[in-house]
Amino acid sequence: MEGRGLRAGFTTDAPPPLHMSEPLRRTAFNRLFAVVYFSAILALLYRHVRNLFLHPTTSFLSFSITLTLFISDLVLAFMWASAQAFRMSPIRRKEFPQNLKRIIKDKDFVGLDVFICTADPYKEPPMNVVNTALSLMAYDYPTEKISIYVSDDGGSVLTLFAFMEAAKFARHWLPFCREQNIMERSPNVYFCSNYQHPSSPHFDKIKMMYEDMKVKVEHVIDKDEVTDEYITDHQQRQAFNKWTKSFTRMDHPTVIQIILDKSHDKDISGRLMPNLIYVSRGKSKTSPHHFKAGALNVLLRVSAVMTNAPIILTQDCDMYSNDPQTPLRMLCYLSDPPLKSSLAFIQFPQRFHGVNKDDIYDTEYKLPFQINPMGLDGLKGPSYLGSGCFFRRRALLGDPSTPVAPEIPELSPEHVVNKPIRSQETLSLAHHVASCNYENETKWGSKTGFRYGSLVEDFYTSYRLHCEGWKSLFCNPERAAFLGNVPITLFDGVNQCKRWCIGLFEVAFSKYSPLTFGSQYMGLLMSLGYSHYAFCSFWCIPVTFYSFLPQLTLLNQVSIFPKEPWFFLYVFLFLGSYGQNFLDLILVGGTVRRWWNAQRMWMIRGLTCNLFASIEYLLRSLGISTYDFCLTSKVVDDEQSKRYGQGIFEFGVPSPLFVPLTVAAIINLFSFLSGLTGFFSGNNMEGLGLQMILTGSIVLNYLPVYGAIALRNDAGKMPTQIIIISPFVSVALYYASSLCLWSNNDSSKH
Ligand SMILES: O=c1ccn([C@@H]2O[C@H](COP(=O)(O)OP(=O)(O)O[C@H]3O[C@H](CO)[C@@H](O)[C@H](O)[C@H]3O)[C@@H](O)[C@H]2O)c(=O)[nH]1
Ligand SMILES: [Mn+2]
Fold first, then answer.
1. In this structure, which residue's CA is closest to atom 4 in ligand 1?
2. pLDDT > 80? residue 677
3. What is the Å distance from ligand 2's center to 515 Cα?
């Protein structure tokens, strides 16, 4: 325990506790188990080394097989060892927002600048973005302390239009939320939820307003332009006129539009509303825009000029607020001065709505988004997850002891804003700091702000902050603070993961690699934790080898795994790691089926995103290709959504990504069948038991793949191209492997 929680228990006049923390009970077991498991790994590696170098092996082939197994097991050992960072001192926190009002007054609440990023009105429907914004505007927090900044990298007039409509609706929505004290402050979620709604005239009226707005916005999106009938005043027309003929999403001047101004705009109950500011940063084809990190840095500067709140909440456009008290939880920590001094950010877990019952694609990512952060929280703190994170502005401008002075004084965290946001000076300065050339020759992205150089700007930024000496903290209340969308097709899920993996590789092999740079600046365990992610695509090495080698050798009746007693070592290592993973997931409320699906996805990711990310990263390093931030689509296709609801795997896209997977499925099936035939026809199958078990369990995992190849006729089945190519590749692999094994047999006879 630490902080106020403990102190409050002993003295009577101490202030009421705001937060507490305690170690997870299984920590002692984790440490003990780590020692045992580590010894087993050493034994296994010793055996490989002995076979490779100490015993002269009989042939080149068996040397190659052992080497392959050795490399695979080395990677597995590294992944295991680095994951221990999450197990050594996990903690759980609890905060008591109900005590807050007794300690600080409303007027002492800190200012909060909320950043919402969107990038494409067709993949990220503006109605969803607007719902996210409305849910955040309706926080239980003094409205005059909140400013919402929307970054539109899609540079779309449609998004601006949607927000103008949302501002009108907000005048009714915010007082409604307060009066009814509702929890779901995203109107869409509220109106769709199955609760007993008060069927009052008030409720019906507001629902109708929402529907009106929705119809209008969706109509404009269908038309792909804001037609005259929807333009109500001169100010709106002026704003829309900024979209000139030469305006494209990749090349246009900055557009900043103040939609709501908290010093003037009131809701229908007469209360002031939060600021709502639309920002589409300037872009040009000749200067890099650094994707989301670039967008966030622009918002950092624009908000500094306009409101300069000490706290910043960064939010993806699909991550709406699910709990209006969330900022109060954040305050519970920030009102604790000793804790605050080196605290850079408070991360809430990424959680999702609309996940199907058994989470077939493991899109919840419980390990990286909920379990592992608790582990890092006991060290220097969790990494930044991109959304649902409250930053201290100061943390993005230099290390805890030496602030970096920004180019202009208005960008300093100490700067006091004393001009209205609509004033000419403020607006022109805001345009200046949002322009596409502003960052040239500055420290933005390298030493200050969100860091550039990786497609996972969140991971990379927090990594650099932790190296600078900052700490972070994981706040994981029972009721999800935010809920976001999940991809509902395998292709989308795997593509998202591939982008992450490439971004992680960029960090892994940069001059700031966690293994070298990180271990110097943030200690062994933290750097191991970061390395675990940075190198996560290495999973493809053991997964690929273990999906093909034991199977191809089994087909040729060649044994590659040891007999007793070493056999038991394999069994222990396998059950140990699977068992621990099982416990991890079950203890956070998972089900057996969810665990099963998660381990299947680990296998599938190994052969898809991990493998392709490695290949693409290699090609890029050789200068052969470049990559892009491929947005995850948040649009829902009805048929796909139906199949997703039923838990049916969705392939559908004829992408090379699915080829290794399908080939592995075919080879495992035939290998397993030939093994079974061998057993039943009394062939000498000695030493092949482990290969049989492994192959059989992979076949079990791949059942949905077989279904998608052979049994289905819907649009989500395995595409014909892949069904045609994969058997050829499988047969070729089989013949190649047989050739190697036979020629080896022949040569050893001579
Ligand atoms: O050029 C860009 C590209 C993306 N985005 C925004 O970035 C967010 C995340 O994009 P998304 O396609 O949803 O990617 P995900 O993989 O789902 O996002 C996860 O991974 C990202 C990269 O690590 C993090 O930034 C996110 O917070 C995290 O939720 C969205 O709000 C986008 O609008 C931009 O603003 N500009
Ligand atoms: Mn997303």
1. 292
2. yes
3. 28
Percent of all residues in the chain with a pLDDT value above 70, rounded to a whole number: 96
Of the residues 73, 152, 153, 323, only one is catalytic, namely: 153
Q: Which residues contact 448 (CB under 8 A, 6 or more apart)?
A: 396, 397, 398, 404, 406
Question: Residue 10: is its pLDDT beyond 50?
Answer: no
Q: Is the pLDDT of residue 421 over 90?
A: yes
CA of 456, closest atom in ligand 1: 23
Quote the tokens at residue 50. 């002995």
Distance 128 CA to ligand 1 centre (A): 15
Nearest ligand by distance to the CA of 347: 1
Which is the catalytic residue, given 359, 362, 377, 458? Answer: 458
Q: What is the mean pLDDT of residues 224-250?
A: 91
Among 292, 300, 633, which residue has the most ligand 1 atoms within 8 Å of its CB, making it the best to mutate? 292
State pTM to two decimals: 0.95
Query: Residue 340 annotated as binding?
Result: no
Q: Tell me, what's the pLDDT at 3?
A: 43
Atom number, ligand 1, closest to the C-alpha of residue 457: 23
Pull the structure tokens for residue 350. Answer: 């990424």
Radius of gyration from C-alpha coordinates of the chain: 28
Protein residue with its CA nearest to atom 17 in ligand 1: 632
List Cα–Cα distances, 375 to 299, 332, 371, 372, 608, in angstroms.
31, 21, 7, 5, 28
Q: With H, G, I as helix, E, B as strand and everything else as coil, classify residue 314.
A: strand
Residue whose CA is at the smallest distance from ligand 1 atom 24: 386
Q: Is 323 annotated as a binding residue?
A: no
> Annotation-wise, does 153 bind a ligand?
yes
Among 142, 152, 143, residue whose Cα is nearest residue 115: 152
At 630, the pLDDT band (50, 70, 90 cuts) reads confident
> 345 by DSSP, 3-state: which?
strand
Residue 471 marked ligand-binding: no
Give the tens place of pLDDT for each residue, 326-378: 999 999 999 998 999 999 999 999 999 999 999 999 999 999 999 999 999 99
Amino acid at site 374:
M
Shortest-distance Cα residue to atom 10 of ligand 1:
631
Classify each residue of 564-578 as buried b or exposed e, where b means 16 or more C-beta atoms within 10 Å of its C-beta. eeeeebbeebeebbe
Testing ligand 1's pocket by substitution, the residue of 316, 363, 463, 495 carrying the most ligand atoms inside 8 A of its CB is 316
Task: State which ligand 1 atom lies nearest to the alpha carbon of 151.
Answer: 35
Q: What is the mean pLDDT of the chain?
A: 93
Burial of 25 (0-12, 13-18, 19+ CB in 10 A): exposed
| Closest ligand 1 atom, residue 629 Cα | 3
Contact 573, 566 (CB under 8 A): no
Is the pLDDT at 422 greater than 70? The verdict is yes
Q: Which of 277-291, 536-550, 558-572 has the lowest mean pLDDT?
A: 558-572
What is the band of 198 on the pLDDT scale with cuts at 50, 70, 90? low
Distances (CA, A) of 179 to 105, 147, 182, 210, 329: 21, 22, 8, 17, 22
Residue nearest to atom 29 of ligand 1 (CA): 386
Known catalytic residue: 458?
yes
* 554/577 Cα distance (integer angstroms): 25
Please tell me which residue, 454 or 741, carries the higher pLDDT value: 454
Single-letter code of the amino acid located at 13: D
Under a CB-based contact definition with an 8 Å cutoff, are residues 2 and 93 in contact? no
For the question of residue 359 being annotated catalytic, the response is: no
How many whole angstroms separate alpha carbon 565 and alpha carbon 298?
62
Look at the block and give the residue holding tokens 């190994």. Answer: 606
CB 138 within 8 A of CB 132: no
pLDDT tens-digit readout, 207-217: 999 999 999 99
Residues at CB less than 6 angstroms from ligand 1: 117-119, 124, 151, 153, 291-292, 295, 316-317, 386-387, 456-458, 496, 500, 629, 631-632
Mean pLDDT on 49-55: 85
| Per-residue confidence (pLDDT) for residue 55, from 0 to 100 | 75
